[in-house]
Request: fold
Amino acid sequence: MSAPAYAACVALVTALGLGFAAWAHPAFLHSSLQNLGLEKAPRAMPGSFYITRIAPLFETRCVSCHGNTRAKGQLRLDSFAAAMRGGKDGTVIVPGDPGASELFHRISLPVSDDKAMPPSGKSPLTADEVTVIRLWIAAGASGEMRTIKGAPKPVLEVRIPESDPAAVQKQRAPLAAAVTQLQARFPGVIIYESRNSADLEVDASLKGAAFGDADLAALMPLKTRITRADFSGTSITDASAPALAAMTALTRLRLARTQVTNKTIGSLASLMTLKSVSLIDTKVSDAALAPLRQRGVLVYGGGNE
Amino acid sequence: MSDPVKEHVLVWDIPTRIFHWTIVVLVALSWFSADQGSMRVHLWSGLTLLALLLFRVLWGLFGSTTARFADFLHPPRKVVAYLRGQEMALYAGHNPAGGWMVAVMIGVLLAQALTGLFSNDGLHFTGPLALWVSDDVSTRVTGLHGTIFNIILVLVWLHVVAVGFYLLVKNHNLVAAMFTGRKHSRHVPAGLNLSFTRLSNALLLLGLTAVIAAWVFFQGVP
Reply:
């Protein structure tokens, strides 16, 4: 055989081989054509159902194994074009037909099935997530459609941060000595808001009339950390107004059945974090409460009650 | 009537031939097992490949004449001249172009075996040394493992095309020579003086590389 004839044979066999690869792995063909710019890659529109509902789902549940760095079964789900191309065994999404879509079939299998996706050891998709994918495929697996009737509403994932005892201890450290000392002086009155917080709650109502202005003044070392304070039924008076105004982290304040008057309420105007104040059975007038109410502070009692 | 034994000259030793065909089988097995998700088979195939490739590197330093890198790695100028048909010398072992093809093939296969050790399939399989690196590195190496596989496919195709060229165009059957170890005397230089390293040495080197592969395997056993 001559060299040119052999070269022609090699070219032919190579072309046949590539043709077979393209036939056996259409995703490979489309990927190559799209990368070479010879085929337009389908794109999903911003705000489309795919972008807002399907892509985030693929991203959190599938892309770790079917993405850029790893593409099991040569399937990538990290873009609309890649998802529609499918994997080594062909397309996995058949627009309009969830039953014929391998992707839907796999996520619908029982967890015990070897072919179930995500595979054992990983959390299966929720019923709502499976429904969202089914409805999207049934509606044509479009990259443009914005809404799909009957699709379950998205569930916001709430993540509770893990406790970091060292960080909490560090936050509490500056006032730790003062807190310990005052807790000893007022047993059961001062507690931390939670295990993970350096903020404090004060419940002086336990002491009743035995808790007066001088006692409240004694709390001043903690003034920036007190978020909730209950002085109901104590003997505090307007003399405590400056001390209350200095508690700049206060969100909830109870002054029910105390001797406080409009003077104290006027000084509370500077507490920008205050959300509610209880003034039941006090001599506070309605007019004095107006500024607080205008700011959206919830007022219980006071005024004309 | 001519003596067929004298017409054919022994050029390839037994270890080199066994290495060649075992590599062919193991590359195919590695491909098939990965494709089928039989990762246990893939692991054993890969480790065997690693042991054989390490052996081949040692054999290229201490083995028989035609197996040695010094015998078949020629300067680039000589390779270009050979490819242009300006270099008419005969070679008992690999020719200048084929020699570099072998070196590149060994290097790429070795890279593939080594990256496989640090890879994971994201499910239930991790390479024996995958825990030596972070998840991120392991994932990147896994991607590289897939890329190198495509390079291997191209190299294998080039190798087959070259062998076919010799067989069909130059009437020189390299495939048969790699089975029998012998080349026709018209394809080898006159007055050839090849040395063949003893088989026991090959077994010693193979034992050493097998121990290395076994050690690698046990790194992955919890």
